[in-house]
Amino acid sequence: MGKGNALPPAARGVVCDIDVGGATPVAQRCRRVAPQFREKLSDLIKGLLSAKMISPSTSPWASPIVIIIKKNGVDIRLCIDYRVVNGLTQLMVYPMPLINDLLEDLDKVLWYCSLDMASGFWVVSMTERARLISAFITPFGLFEWNRMPFGLKNAPQIYQRLIDNALYGYLKISSDDSNDSEPRDVFLTGEAETEQKPSVLGRRSYIRDILVTADSWDTLCNKVDRLLEACDKWNLSISVVKSFWGLRKVDYLGHQVSMDGLEAHPKDLQALADLSFPSTLRAMQSFLGSLNDYSRFIDDFAIYASVLYELRESDFHEITRKKPKESVVEKAKSDDREEAPAGEDRWTRAERAFTVLKTKIAATPVLRHFDPDRPPVVVVYASKWAVSAALMQEHDGVYWPVTFTSRTLKSNEINYGIVDKEVLALLRILEVCYTLLVTRTIKVLTRYSTLGWLMQSTSFHGRLGRWTALLSPWTLEIVKCTKGEDEILGTLAATITPRAKVDEALIKIAPQKQPRQVIVMPPPTVEPEEKLLVVSFDGSVRVKRGGGAYSAIVWQLPQWKVVFAASEYMAELTVNEAEYRGMMLCLDLVAPLDRGRLIIYGDSNLVIRQMRGEIECKAPG
């Protein structure tokens, strides 16, 4: 099992089926393979045939292959492009575990085992229908899978359900299911397990990665024994070479877990820290997606990342054309205390935020495991355009972080008072850490005593009333930070930026967000004999036709004489685009006229409010 070059025994009680409804079979064309990879592909197919993973097929279905070059630059990996099949497959609804949930409840653990299930999806047999639909086409022929391959839409859910049932024992293997017969799915037979035993590990796993935890060596051995019994019962195998047994610290789901706390995996962090600034929007999105897994380790993460999320494809095209003489990255490394110019462009701020994020990646702290026996402490912070919060607990007289969370404010939230913003920060941490904090008394450290007054009042209306209702189930102890406490919170092993200096530290990368303007404009009035132009525009879309029409009319007052009227039709328009084009059409009509006073009417709230400056236009031009 170590090298995975033999067919693993089929797991009992589970099969993979692919339900495409009444869809017509789709046979895609064979893709070309580079000459240097053809022999390697042939050897891979021979190996899969020898291991009985695949069989020659006469299926009317055919999905193309994708050749992936491994890190050594020589070997290849065979993948199947199942996008068409997945688009036709009915989604299997099953709850996948959240990584944050799997990393909780570890405060009393002293011993760990990090185990990898051998062969993963390949232990799941396929139904006859699934074999036909899984067929893939190569230059050497058409083949179908006898075991569940990677890339199928419902493969993770099927395997996760198998592992959950093996660990918790909800359903039993049918008496008709023997090792020599065709496997039957216990989730179709639905026979409940008669022996009511406790769960094997007391926790879920994440697909094929299993974490065994214990507060003593004997307990660890007992759990491993029960796990091996469950694996034997369901015909599951553990990869010995990829598993770690009885250690004080193990790697699990991209993290290092130990009795000291939770650490980000150094190898993954180094790979992120070595990245240069992405040159395309897709590469930037990939970087942010990878970094988002470690957002809990970085205070004010969302604030820095928001600047990068603002970038659009046009920004990358524009910067590649400009080719500036001086690298913006070098500017980003300048003194952090220097404020950014008022008109600094989006790209410069993004480079600066990217540099700061990489610096923070290289110095991620150790997050302590949440201890239910220690009182939780929440520190909330609000600035003009962002809120952040940290969940901490006191160890040996020092506050240590458990997790960080943050977010930027929306345009309308920027207008809120500082106390309102701190409530947003508090609601944020309560939502993120709900399972840890529910039913507990929480000490909230704030810079303003008015937050405590807000929690005690019962006469609020509007948003304050709604927030008070949301906070009413919680037991909160609001404490105003003294200067000494604030200094302690700001010197925790370089993990938390001192709150008094956060605005100064972030000012150079502040997102280009402005408070939503509320312009009070009374309805226009017209004198009986006043001479002026009145313009009306409108737009509509017919979804079935896939297009839309827009029109504009210009009247001359006081006679209400129609000066111009025009309408146009375009394909592939949205409703807002049709309204915008109607507005542009009316402006084109009045351009050659002696306008004087001009009144424009329209029924699009978005277009009118953006013209009046009340709503920001996110993609001008």
Key attributes of the depicted protein:
alpha+beta, disordered N terminus, globular, 22 strands, Nucleotidyltransferase, domain 5, 5-stranded mixed sheet, 4 domains, HIV Type 1 Reverse Transcriptase, Chain A, domain 1, 21 helices, 621 residues, 32% helix
Short structural description:
This protein is of the alpha+beta class and 621 residues long. It is built from 21 helices and 22 strands. 32% of the residues lie in helices and 21% in strands.
Task: Report the top-level CATH class of the largest domain.
Answer: Alpha Beta
Distance between the termini: 59 Å
Task: Report the principal-axis shape.
Answer: globular
Largest beta sheet: what is the strand line-up? 2-8-7-3-4
Could you tell me the number of beta strands? 22
Ordered list of secondary-structure elements with their pairings:
Blueprint: E1 15-16, H1 35-50, E2 54-56, E3 63-69, E4 76-80, H2 83-88, H3 99-102, E5 111-116, E6 125-126, H4 128-133, E7 136-138, E8 141-145, H5 155-168, H6 186-189, E9 209-214, H7 217-234, E10 244-247, E11 249-252, E12 255-258, E13 261-264, H8 266-273, H9 281-292, H10 301-309, H11 313-322, H12 328-332, H13 346-361, E14 377-382, E15 386-395, E16 398-408, H14 418-432, H15 434-437, E17 441-446, H16 450-456, H17 462-471, E18 475-480, H18 483-489, H19 502-506, E19 532-542, E20 547-557, E21 561-571, H20 575-590, E22 598-601, H21 605-611
Parallel strand pairs: 1-6, 3-7, 14-17, 17-18, 19-22
Antiparallel strand pairs: 2-8, 3-4, 5-9, 5-10, 7-8, 11-12, 12-13, 14-15, 15-16, 19-20, 20-21
Organism: Phytophthora fragariae
GO molecular function: nucleic acid binding
InterPro entries: DNA/RNA_pol_sf, Rev_trsase/Diguanyl_cyclase, RNaseH-like_sf, RNaseH_sf, RT_dom, RT_RNaseH_2, Viral_Replic_Matur_Polypro
